[in-house]
Amino acid sequence: MRKFLYDMERRFGRFAIPNLINYFVIGYVVMTILCMFAPILYYGYLALDFDAIRQGQIWRLVTFILAPASLNSFLDILFFVITIHLYYLFGHSLENVWGTFRFNFYFFSGIVLTVLGEWILYLTMGIPAYYGGMNYIYQSMFFAFCLLFPDEQFMLYFVFPLKAKYLAALDALLLIVQIIQYVSGGYYAFALAIVIAMLNFVVFWWLYRGNTRFHPGQRARTVKFRQQTAQKMQGVTKHKCAICGRTEVSNPELSFRFCSKCMGNYEYCEEHLYTHKHITKIDQQ
Question: Are residues 23 and 91 in the same domain?
């Protein structure tokens, strides 16, 4: 599988779409707003419905990914905004680590597998429609993010700091409960969509299980080494944000990373990694 990905990237890498997650987020927001005024738009004309597809509405094979969020209260709107931010964060983080082609492959393979899985369900059980869109594919991105950055912290309910790896474990339990509830309630299309989306995470783990650069154990050893080095070199900083100037000494709670899209070795803190303007050759001149 690794060799297959390498070969695919070498042949088709130039066709990969940079910042792919931006387009999906925009589509998600636009469809959510449109469905506030025309609720039947998605479910009546765009959702994955194989009975309608057989009648010639083949666009549904693509437009099903635009499933809108439900905004019935202020809390729904609040979580909608947070969800958009997280989708953006996870998407760009994975693309920065994997590269544009591999992120594209991961994302589109999730879409194709969802269509194939729901089509098989339609042929075997006669269940024609699936209305979940990209929800579980986005959720699989969260698991991939947590595997890459297990020690990143999120504020649970805006109060409790919790590392990504613990949130992933909690989310996995909730997904198992969801699958059981969907199966017991006869919502097989949603249960299957969860299983298919998680296959993306399993494939990701299998591909990177031998890559020590991103292995959680290696990251832990790296952190320990940096801590030991810092003790020996007190007063000397190794990380500095090119925007705000903060370092690991002045702000030990921050994480710092280099930007692969900037020309030169520019490092940014977690607050400016995804919001800074990329430095080009023209800027350096």
Answer: yes
Q: What is the pLDDT of residues 197-246, one digit of tens each?
A: 988 778 777 765 655 444 444 545 555 555 555 554 455 567 888 888 88
The predicted model scores a pTM of: 0.68
Helices (H), the chain: 2-12, 20-37, 40-45, 50-54, 60-63, 74-98, 100-125, 135-148, 164-185, 188-208, 216-232, 281-284
In a domain, 224, yes or no: no
Enumerate residues 6+ apart whose C-beta is below 8 A from 167. Answer: 146, 154, 156
**Of 173, 23, 38, residue with least CA distance to 92:** 23
Q: Is residue 216 part of a domain?
A: no
Tokens encoding 209: 């299980």
- On whether residue 140 sits in a domain, the answer given is yes
Do 198 and 245 belong to one domain? no
Residues 43, 65: Cα–Cα separation, whole Å: 12
Tokens of 204: 């990701």
Residues whose CB falls within 8 Å of the CB of residue 138, separated by 6 or more in sequence, listed in order:
87, 90
**Are 237 and 166 in the same domain?**
no
